[in-house]
Amino acid sequence: MKAFFDIDTQLDFVTPGGALYGPGAERLIPLIAKLNHYAGDHKIPLISTTDAHPENAEEFRIWPPHCVIGTFGQQKPTATLLASRVVIPTTENDAASQYIVEKNDLDMFTNPHVPALLAALDVTECIVYGVFIDYCVKCALTGLQRAGLKVALVTDASASISKEAGDAVIRDFLAAGGHLIASSEVLQ
């Protein structure tokens, strides 16, 4: 089954003034909202990742504090949320259209529930987009490929902090068998 992956589109990353704002990332919000709602309208599982850091997160030794649990910056833009959603970990809810996977690391696979979620949804094909290609998106791409899944990156719905680093991730992703796709192809 195909699933969409909305990686870390949180206010601290995609809005000016956010703790780790990526310049220009706010331009992605309407397109990501469109992709997310397309998934919901077509009954395609949507797995959205969010940083969910405690106030004393290890990551804050490297990065400024960001996406602290319960803060404004930890939230996803309202336009990217579906009405039927569940936060992982949680109790079972097969009726959800959107699964919000919390993590306290760059890699969504550090949430121990991710492999079981992918198996429960019978995911075989992954459509990935979000922020930032050179960090959390890279981890998602790599982890999904390592899991043996078919993975495509929606290039116009993703952003990098460093163009050079993002381009290097894309080269490695393609070399590992990944595919690039435009949102217009996904939304057909």
How would you sum up the major sheet? 7 strands, parallel
Name of the top-level CATH class:
Alpha Beta
The overall number of domains is: 1
Integer average pLDDT: 94
SSE arrangement, N to C: EHHEEEHEHEHEH
Shape: globular
CATH superfamily: Isochorismatase-like
Strand order of the largest sheet: 3-4-2-1-5-6-7
Q: Roughly what percent helix? A: 25-40%
Specify the number of helices.
Answer: 6
Q: Pick out the low-confidence regions.
A: 89-93
Oligomer: single chain
Taking all Cα atoms into account, the compactness measure Rg is 15 Å
Query: What is the count of β-strands?
Result: 7
> What is the second-level CATH architecture?
3-Layer(aba) Sandwich
CATH topology call: Rossmann fold
Write structural notes for this entry.
This protein is an alpha/beta fold. It has a single domain, classed as Isochorismatase-like (Rossmann fold, 3-Layer(aba) Sandwich). The chain has helices spanning 11-14, 29-41, 114-120, 136-146, 163-175, 183-186; strands spanning 2-7, 46-51, 85-88, 98-103, 125-131, 150-159, 179-181. Strands 3-4-2-1-5-6-7 form a 7-stranded parallel beta sheet, with helices on both faces. Strand 5, helix 4 and strand 6 (150-159) form a beta-alpha-beta unit. The longest helix is centred in the N-terminal third of the chain and has 13 residues, at 29-41. Mean pLDDT is 94; it is low at 89-93.
Keywords:
188 residues; alpha/beta; Rossmann fold; 7 strands
Short summary:
By secondary structure, the chain is of the alpha/beta class.
SSE arrangement:
Blueprint lengths: L1 E6 L3 H4 L14 H13 L4 E6 L33 E4 L9 E6 L10 H7 L4 E7 L4 H11 L3 E10 L3 H13 L3 E3 L1 H4 L2
